[in-house]
Amino acid sequence: MQIFINEQKIKVKENTTAFDIKNQFKKNADIIILNGFIIKNNITLKENDRLTLIKKGEIPSKKELENLMLARHTPGVHKKVKNAIVGIAGLGGLGSNVAVSLARIGVGNLLLVDFDIVEPSNLNRQAYFISHIGMPKTDALKDLISKINPFINVKTKNIYLNENNIENTFYNCQIIVEAFDKPKSKATLINTVLKNMPDKIIVAASGVAGYFSNNTIITKKIRKNFYLIGDGISEAKPGCGLMAPRVSIAANHQANTVLRIIMGEKDV
């Protein structure tokens, strides 16, 4: 019978259990993950089961680290997300948090696009640290992602996007995340993609300001290649700012929508 131990294929006898494998290959393992789920009780293994053995606090090799990270995925997910190419337009509260979530799930290729630098007022909702202040957001976010998941292929473009460069910038991306603050920039990107890039899918957001109800932020499928996240109402203005909780809820709606698209899900 064939199984995978820390993503390495081996053959074992029928009726082999998870604890048998632990005792044979890593007796000091504190965590046993079977097909993406931590188990506490012994379980008899089946053909093509994936078992991961982890010792808490142990620093793995680079290859082992990648295997341990993908072990938490449902089987079959990692190959698809690793091959995906996603572009993110705008690296503020939405874009920086979308990028972090996509990196954590192992999306293999990210294109990060912004022209701005990190400044102190960004820290109330964006993924950056104090040490990133003054850095271009593209460089700061690439640095951050390298500390989260060093196996992501991250490319950056430090440019201001407009109708003249959008197509060339994202020509190689399968999915484009719209993460701008300004309504005009949002409209320009969305309209350009829908009009001139019908083979791309765009995941946009609008209405994420304030501290209104969590449940008013929803995901809508506007057309086959256009998804829109937010409440559609709560714009940032004096007396209604942008803050981490609600912005992050919307950003992770966007990230999960990207994941669902990669996995072939049709609906929201």
Domain tally: 2
Tell me the helix content.
Answer: 25-40%
The beta-strand count equals 12
Binned strand content: 15-25%
- Structural class by sheet pairing and helices: alpha/beta
The CATH homologous superfamily of the largest domain: NAD(P)-binding Rossmann-like Domain
Report the CATH topology name of the largest domain.
Rossmann fold
Radius of gyration: 21 Å
The termini sit apart by 38 Å
Q: Tell me the name of the CATH class of the largest domain.
A: Alpha Beta
CATH architecture of the largest domain: 3-Layer(aba) Sandwich
The major sheet is characterized as:
7 strands, mixed
Count of separate DSSP helical elements:
8
The side-by-side strand order for the widest beta sheet comes to 8-7-6-9-10-12-11
Domain ThiS-like ubiquitin: 1-57
Keywords: Nucleotidyltransferase, Transferase
Domain THIF-type NAD/FAD binding fold: 67-266
GO molecular function, one term: tRNA threonylcarbamoyladenosine dehydratase
Strand and helix layout:
Blueprint: E1 2-5, E2 8-11, H1 18-25, E3 31-34, E4 37-38, E5 50-54, H2 62-70, H3 77-83, E6 85-89, H4 93-105, E7 109-113, H5 137-148, E8 153-157, H6 166-169, E9 175-178, H7 183-196, E10 201-205, E11 218-223, E12 226-230, H8 244-262
Parallel strand pairs: 1-5, 6-7, 6-9, 7-8, 9-10, 10-12
Antiparallel strand pairs: 1-2, 3-4, 3-5, 11-12
Helix pairs in contact: 4-5, 4-8
